[in-house]
Every structure is written in C-alpha cells, then in structure tokens.
C-alpha cells in the first residue's frame, strides 16, 4: 500500500510512520494500513 510502499512493514520514527529500509536501528513494525501484506485489500501473501 502507499503507506509502506509495498514492503508490508513501516519503521517507527518519532510520531510518524515511515518506510525506510536503510534505517536498521529503528524498530520494524507491521504496517497498520495493509496489515503487512503490501497491498490494500489483499487477503493473502
């Protein structure tokens, strides 16, 4: 989805959620919008 850019995961950075694969020091959490699937409305991987 647009929130995680198809990755299915977002990295917590302050108050905003941001997908950034380069920042390994930040905790990786499942994207709340698509539930880690990468696409909105997708049920299975």
From TrEMBL:
<dbReference type="InterPro" id="IPR036410">
    <property type="entry name" value="HSP_DnaJ_Cys-rich_dom_sf"/>
</dbReference>
<protein>
    <recommendedName>
        <fullName>CR-type domain-containing protein</fullName>
    </recommendedName>
</protein>
<dbReference type="GO" id="GO:0009535">
    <property type="term" value="C:chloroplast thylakoid membrane"/>
</dbReference>
């Amino acid at each position: 989805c647009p929130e995680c850019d198809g990755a299915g995961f977002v990295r917590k950075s302050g108050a905003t959620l941001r997908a950034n694969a380069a920042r390994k020091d930040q905790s990786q959490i499942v994207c709340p919008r698509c539930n880690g699937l990468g696409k909105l409305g997708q049920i299975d991987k």
